[in-house]
Amino acid sequence: MSSQHTDRLMSTHRHCPSTSATSSPPPAKRRCGEPSPQDNITHTQKAPKSHPRGRHGRRGKQKPETKALKLEKYVDSGGPHWASMVIDNLTKIYHHPHYPYECIGIKIDGALVREIIWVEYQTQVSWKTSQPFPPTPDKILVVPTPPSVLQADPQHPPYLMLCCVSVVPPGQALLLAAWDCVKSVSPKQYIKREQSHSATPAYHWGVWEKTQLTPYITSESSKQSVEAIAAIDKLLNLVGQRIVPKAIEMTQYYPPEQWKAQERAYNRVHAWLGDELAKRPALDFKGAFFTIAVKEGGMGDWEGGEFVAPQLGVRVPIVPGHLFSMMSRTVAHFTTPITSGQRVVFTCFTDKNLWAHTDLPTTIIG
Predict the structure, then answer these.
(1) Which of these, 91, 233, 80, lies nearest to 167 by C-alpha position?
(2) In what order do the strands lie in the sheet with 91-93?
(3) For residues 309 and 331, is the Cβ–Cβ distance under 8 A?
(4) CA atoms within a 13 Å half-sphere pointing along the CA-CB vector of 248
(5) Half-sphere exposure of residue 345, counting CA atoms within 13 Å on the CB side?
(6) By three-state DSSP, how is residue 56 classified?
(7) What average pLDDT does this structure show over 53-75?
(8) Using CA atoms, how far apart are residues 178 and 9, in angstroms rounded to an integer?
(9) CA 119/CA 112 separation, integer angstroms
(10) What is the rounded average pLDDT for all residues in the chain?
(11) By three-state DSSP, how is residue 153 classified?
């Protein structure tokens, strides 16, 4: 104990001037709270060094005019063209000859979906016979919607599946730690597990409409204890910092028309819930999506858990840092078993009713 106390004192006083070896008597001990003789010494503060260009050492926020000028130079120098070429070189486009229509319009029933897929795609149901895709981890996977479908329905999203690699900043440890904090306070679950979707329950946080005509914040977001809300918001703030910006960039680049619709939906949600979201900014995902379902089942390193789409005949390895998007209500899918590691699934989505009501007129009374 004495050794630890000594170390602590040395650390505390390491900036004090050393005492030279003289014959003068040691300084008298001071009582607690008694001023030190050095307290009366006036210290002269050194003037800050001038910046070589006459500016402060720390850069401030750039002016809008400066940003606009830099953007103009970037465009004039061909920056967007070269960036597009780099992305094109990294993109693998997989044109599937058929549209996966088999499960459209049917009742949400996992057993029925499995039966349909088994009858239509017996050779593809086994994940071992599906085509592994993409073959290298540095490729961007794009599965476009067939042109005939887009001609018949111009509002249909242009892609059935999209996987961007290495776009989310490393932060699995932070997300897992925040998730552990959420579990430690045991938030209430108000939504029953959907048998067709998962064998384990998930929390649903954010905004949706479900069967309503107006958006509202989910019960699992609002009807919680103070401790649970703090833990949930801590996790969602990490999602907002690390996932939301990349999801917006991906949507703006690949399906820009869909991003415009997302913006319209975002404006409508804010017309109804702007005040509530201002009080809980962690629930505001900036239009990238509106709801996030989180369950233990993938952040962190793991093995296995590949995404299989029998209708498309592909098997997509999902690894940390990838951003994966697909039409989950059109493309039947499942994942292979996890062989090792901890897996927490973050499913970010827009409720179908909220999407369908995007262009409804907003009339708020009161």
Answers:
(1) 91
(2) 91-93, 140-144, 159-164, 323-326
(3) yes
(4) 14
(5) 21
(6) coil
(7) 67
(8) 35
(9) 11
(10) 73
(11) coil
Residue 149 to residues 11, 152, 160, 253, 276, Cα–Cα distance (Å): 71, 5, 11, 21, 39
3 state DSSP class of 263: helix
Neighbours of 317 (CB within 10 A): 17
| pTM of the model as a whole | 0.64
DSSP assignment string, 31-49: PTTPPPGGGGPPPPPPPPP
Could you count the other beta carbons within 10 Å of the beta carbon of residue 253? 13
Distance, CA of 325 to CA of 143 (rounded, Å): 10
| Interatomic CA distance for residues 216 and 272, integer angstroms | 8
Unique residue bearing structure tokens 């977001």: 221
CATH 3.60.130 is right for the domain spanning 88-356: yes
DSSP per-residue codes, 326-337: E-TTTS--EEPP
> Where are the domains positioned within the chain?
88-356
Which of these, 149, 144, 150, 233, lies nearest to 185 by C-alpha position?
233
Q: Can you tell me the distance from the alpha carbon of 84 to that of 204, in angstroms, rounded to the nearest whole number?
A: 36
CB-CB contact of 246 with 202 (8 Å): no
350: number of Cβ within 10 Å: 23
d(CA 358, CA 257): 14
Rounded to 5°, the CA angle 215-203-188 comes to: 100
Q: DSSP code of 314?
A: E
Rg (CA), the chain: 28
Higher pLDDT, 268 or 128: 268
Burial class (CB in 10 A: 0-12, 13-18, 19+), 7: exposed
Mean per-residue pLDDT for 80-99?
67
Does residue 28 or residue 114 have the better pLDDT? 114
Q: What are phi and psi of 300, to 5 degrees?
A: 90, 175
Position 53 pLDDT exceeds 60: no
Question: How many angstroms separate the Cα of 24 from the Cα of each of 30, 36, 157?
Answer: 18, 18, 86
The DSSP result for 286-298, as a single string, is: TTS-SEEEEEE--
pLDDT digits (tens, 9 = 90+) for 309-352: 878 877 777 777 777 888 877 887 776 665 556 677 788 999 88
Average pLDDT over residues 67-75: 72
Region 203-220 average pLDDT: 93
* 201 close to 293: Cβ distance less than 8 angstroms: no
